[in-house]
Amino acid sequence: MLSVAMDGGGVEQPRAFVEQFGVTFPTFLDASGLLFRLYGFSAVPNGVYVDEAGIIRFQLFTGFSVDREDVVQQLETLLATPSGDVPPAPTVAQQSFEVEVLLEQAAANGDDADLQLALAEACLQESENARAAEAFARALELNSESANAAFGLGTALHQLGQTSEALDAWGRALEIEPDNFVIRKQIWRLKHPEKFYPVVDYDWQKVQLAAEKAAEGRA
Questions:
Q1: What residues pair up with 56 in beta bridges, in sequence order?
Q2: In the predicted model, is pLDDT for residue 96 greater than 50?
Q3: Helix (H, G, I), strand (E, B), or coil: what is residue 86?
C-alpha cells in the first residue's frame, strides 16, 4: 500500500502531515499533477488497486475512502480472489520520460504541442525546472486550451521560486477547466497553507468554493 500527495509546493508540508499522523506506508509526492493527467480525475481523494502483475483491478475517483463499507467490501473481495479470475479495470496510458530522446524529437518537431508537453513533464520529473517551464510555455503557446500545460507551467515556476507567476499559470489552468478541483486546491494550498497543514480544513474549503463559484458566475 502507498499514498501519493499531490502538492506542487514541495515535499516539506506533505512530510509534516505524514509524520504528524504516523503514516507507516510509503508516501510519494506528485508535484507536477501527472496523476490527474494520466487518470483523468479532477478531484481527490482517489483509490487504485494494482495487483502483483501490475494490472489495475479497481479504481474509484472522487469519493474513495477506507471508511466506506462498500469500498472495503470490494477491496476485500479482490484481495481474496485469484488475479486470473478478476477482470482488469480500464487501463491507463503510460508516458516515457527519456529527456534526451524527447529533446531531439522536440527540436525536430517544434510545433507539436503534445511533444512539447511530454518533454516538459520529463524535465519536471528530472528537476530540470527551467527547461520544463520553457517547454510548458511552448506547449501552452501551441495549444492555448491545454490545462495540463498551464498547470505544469505553474508547477515549474513555483519550483523556481516564482510564486506570483506560478499563481498566474495555475489561474489560467483553472479558467480552462473551472471544475477541476485539483487545480483549484493547488492555488488554495499556496495562498492559504494554514488551511491545509497540519490539518485540512474541509469546512473552509466548502465556503471558499461557494464564494469563488459565485464570483465566477457573476464574472
A1: 50
A2: no
A3: coil
CA dihedral sign, ordered 39, 217, 169, 101: positive
Is the CB of residue 183 less than 8 Å from the CB of residue 147?
Answer: yes
**CA-to-CA separations, 131 to 34, 35, 103, 121, 123, in angstroms, rounded:** 17, 21, 10, 10, 6
**pLDDT of 47 over the 80 cut:** yes
- Encode burial over 74-102: b for 16+ CB neighbours within 10 A, e otherwise: bbeeeeeeeeeebeeeeeeeeeebebeeb
Tell me the CA end-to-end span of the chain in Å, nearest whole number.
44
Q: Hey, is 202 helix, strand or coil? A: helix
- pTM beyond 0.70: no
Q: SS3 for 136? A: helix
Q: Considering only 30-44, 129-143, 158-172, which range has the smallest mean pLDDT?
A: 30-44
Cell of 55: 494490472
DSSP 30: E
Contacts 24+ apart (CB under 8 A), 174-180: 174/147, 176/145, 176/146, 176/147, 176/150, 177/42, 177/147, 178/216, 179/42, 180/36, 180/42, 180/43, 180/147
For residue 14, count CB atoms less than 10 angstroms from its CB and return exposed for 0-12, middle for 13-18, buried for 19 or more. Answer: buried
Is pLDDT at 42 greater than 70 in this prediction?
A: no
Max avg pLDDT among 29-38, 71-80, 165-174, 189-198: 165-174
CB-CB contact of 206 with 213 (8 Å) = no
